[in-house]
Amino acid sequence: MPNAEEPPRFPRSSAYHPDWILTGASGGANALWLTEWLAEAMELRAGMRVLDLGSGRGTSSVFLHREFGVQVWSVDLWFDPGERLARFRDAGVEDAVFPLRADARSLAFAPGFFDAVVSVDSFVYFGTDDLYANTLARFLVPAGALGIAGAGLVDELDGPVPEHLRSWWEPSLACLHSAAWWRRHWERSGLLDVERADTMPDGWQRWLEWQRAVSPDNHVEIDAVTADRGRNLGYVRAVARRRADVEPDEPITSLPTEYVSRPLLRG
Ligand SMILES: C[S@@+](CC[C@H](N)C(=O)[O-])C[C@H]1O[C@@H](n2cnc3c(N)ncnc32)[C@H](O)[C@@H]1O
User: Fold this and answer.
1) Pocket mutation for ligand 1, best pick of 23, 51, 73, 77 (most atoms within 8 Å of C-beta)
2) Fewer CB atoms inside 10 A, N or C side of the chain?
3) Ligand 1, residues 33, 60, 75, 76: which to mutate, most atoms within 8 A of Cβ?
4) Domain ranges in the chain?
5) In the prediction, which pLDDT does 28 show?
6) Dist CA 135 CA 248 (whole Å)
């Protein structure tokens, strides 16, 4: 823990009440720490339209509006938008932070609607698909920013899951990737210019600090992260801009066909 003279690592987040952060936790990581870290690498200006994709219970959405004056569309699949609306009203931000339940794979916004997309500890659930950058880039203005931050790997696992992580590991953790993986994944799309892809220094310690606060009985995860000591697990961040000189492909929603009757068999 920082001593009294040491400035907090996340000065913006440290102004928020710990009870508010804990009761708004959606699992995973401390959403404010990751949003603050992500915002350090992005240009967020007042009045921008920002999609908070996989916003969970919306603490990151409140934070983005309060800290940067952006309008936020707080989109999530699993969590009730009604609970988020209550949180937004209580925080006095309901005129600028809008809760929606939607699947990131079937968003219905107008093309070019957003100046920026942020996704905190969520992008791994849908963004590893090779075609997803195309899906998402359509909703960004040309040169609009895409930023993600969340749990990930320091380096890609080359071989079996290390012994010290096995009791915690589940098959779905195959979606965790390194910053270098995200850089390559987005560069391959041909639609994004990657500006940053890195790993949080001592991120595993922040991971532990948060787990001990939010879920102190989760010994399996705490023991795994402690044993790992940042060799494999950490927080990764990636920031890119939609290329202005390339148009994303239009999504195929239906192909027109007309039935032509022909004999079924040769004989
Ligand atoms: C670990 S939680 C993180 C939530 C929040 N951003 C935070 O950091 O506390 C992962 C979130 O991803 C969202 N999610 C997963 N798949 C999704 C999808 N296909 N479309 C939209 N959101 C999705 C879930 O609803 C969930 O809230």
Assistant:
1) 77
2) C
3) 76
4) 13-242
5) 82
6) 8
- CATH code, 13-242: 3.40.50.150
Cβ pair 43, 145 in contact under 8 A:
yes
Give the closest residue to 105 by CA, choosing from 90, 126, 82, 125: 126
> What single letter denotes the amino acid at residue 176?
L
| Tokens read off for 7 | 């400035």
Place of tokens 């009761």: 23
113 lines ligand 1 (CB under 6 A): no
138-174 pLDDT, tens digit per residue, is: 999 999 999 999 999 999 998 999 999 999 999 999 9
pTM for the predicted model, two decimal places: 0.96
- Ligand 1 binding pocket includes 173 (Cβ within 6 Å): no
Beta strands across the sheet bearing 49-53: 97-101, 71-76, 49-53, 114-120, 140-153, 233-242, 192-199
CA distances (Å), origin 184, targets 79, 130, 180, 191: 31, 11, 6, 12
Assess whether pLDDT exceeds 60 at residue 191. yes
Name the token pair of 140.
């960004």
